[in-house]
Amino acid sequence: MPLLQDTTLGIDFGTSNSAVAVRQGRGAARMIALEGGAATLPTALFFNAEEQRTHFGRDAVAQYLSGTEGRLMRSLKSLLGSALLQEKTAVHNTLVSYQDIIGLFLRRLADTAQAELGGLPARVVMGRPVHFVDDDPLRDRQAEAALRLAAAGAGFAEVSFQLEPIAAALDYEQRLAHEALVLVVDIGGGTSDFTVVRLGPDRAGQSDRARDVLATTGVHVGGTDFDRRLSLDLAMPLLGLRHRGPAGREVPSRVFFDLSTWHLIQWLYSPRALRDAENLRNDYSDVRLHGRLMRVLHERWGHRLADTVERTKIAASSTPEASTAMPLDWIEPGLGAALSPGGLAAGLEALLEQVVACARDCVAQAGLGAQGLEAIYLTGGSSALRPLRHALAAAFPATPQVEGDLFGGVAAGLAVSR
Q1: Is 193 contained in some domain?
Q2: Dihedral sign of CA atoms 289, 328, 273, 191 in order
Q3: What percent of the chain has pLDDT over 90?
Q4: Span 262-300, pLDDT tens digits
Q5: How many CB atoms lie within 10 A of CB 95?
Q6: Structurally, how many domains does the chain consist of?
Q7: Strands in 80-191 per DSSP E
Q8: What does each C-alpha distance from 230 to 249, 256, 269 come to in angstroms?
Q9: Residue 414 belongs to some domain of the structure
Q10: First-to-last CA distance in the chain?
Q11: Domain presence at residue 396
């Protein structure tokens, strides 16, 4: 099938969610529906062991939560730049690398775009964070090269990359009627990225925008890190984290940290990991806690627990006037926790300090004070968190916050990138 000329596909391969937009000629970018009528697809795969089939997105999560035998994988983007990317795992009785699994997900995006457009665009622009890996340029380059290779394996011919916050800025620019200096805040599942950029309708048609980008910064903190922190505070103590055993020592904590980290959960189900967890029993004074831990591991409920924590975080941010219940009665009858608005803010305080410090650094590198900005443009699903917005308002009290398309803005901006 020939490639579609004069057509650009923008792909936002996200830690938590992915989106695809297309631009034909010099027209406006439009989103491509990826699952039903939804323009986003959770970056998740479920390998159904009963039917030897692969499921994607919401369907993958639903298959897992329904108790179907198989394996759920999420947050694969977090593996880019790590040695784990080339590790192999059994999928439908075949050993494949995690890079190949990323390629499998990208192939799903390619197939959907091809079905919608009648062919694949000649040009594909993929988003990338400012840093895949903090403070390690070599691993950062390796991460981009691995993603390029996975995209090529998925069938994409000409692949280029654009920083995700710059893509978000280009999407915002389509709606501006005047020139403005803007701080773009892109808080995704795995990273927080920032750009100070000069935008305006008279600049939108220029092919070289390098001089309009005053500064870019990024930090490897995002929504999955927020989930991890809240899981360690709320859920893991119910399984034994910080519990003291008969000798007065705390239960070794590694299993709890891995169980709170989306992309590491799957490794806890190996025979060796299960034996290591079983051997922790003598470190517990209250063996009921150990029983809960082992039930989660034997039933492969790690992602279900992480999903429950994430949903609780979102609900607590949306209902600031009351505490949000986190029911865990599927682990043990009557088990649960609650997250108050104050608890959400306190739990995320240290991480949000890192995020806001990175935003301040971006503005400082641009040679501006807070008063030099006309707007803070928010994109990325985790930018909806109320404590984050409060932290940004405290750092930039005179600058209005503008909410963009939290899940589709980056993909749309990638499609109009030159």
Answers
A1: no
A2: negative
A3: 74
A4: 989 988 999 999 999 999 999 999 999 999 999 999 999
A5: 10
A6: 1
A7: 88-91, 94-97, 121-128, 158-163, 180-187
A8: 23, 12, 22
A9: no
A10: 25
A11: no
